[in-house]
Design goal:
mainly alpha; 5 helices
Amino acid sequence: MAEAKGLQASQKDAKESRQSVKGALKINDVEIVFWHQLSAVLLRNHDELAQREEFSKQASEQLVNIYAAMRPEAASEQLSRMDEITAAAILSRLKPRAASAILNDIPPDKAARLATILTGVSRKSDRGEKS
């Protein structure tokens, strides 16, 4: 009878161990599913971000080409009315001759602020930093 009780105790311990392992596996299964879903979301977001960056790059190139083709007086009028960071970004991508002609027609205070922003951009690019 003592052997039977010992056997029952061993069986009970084995059953509890199996349940514990099964419980651990369920948690791990949930974790695996979670990490799989999270990685899928991150991958989708990465792909969407890459597409947005490509679109933005193409749009920026087109916008710069548009301003490069405009008369300096018209370009300066428009750049004077937009936010200075955007205007400076456009000017920084134009050829120096086109940018200087446009800056020449921008009111002096605004042109000075744009030049200050452009100076900061050129300093960062000289050091290899992203603007």
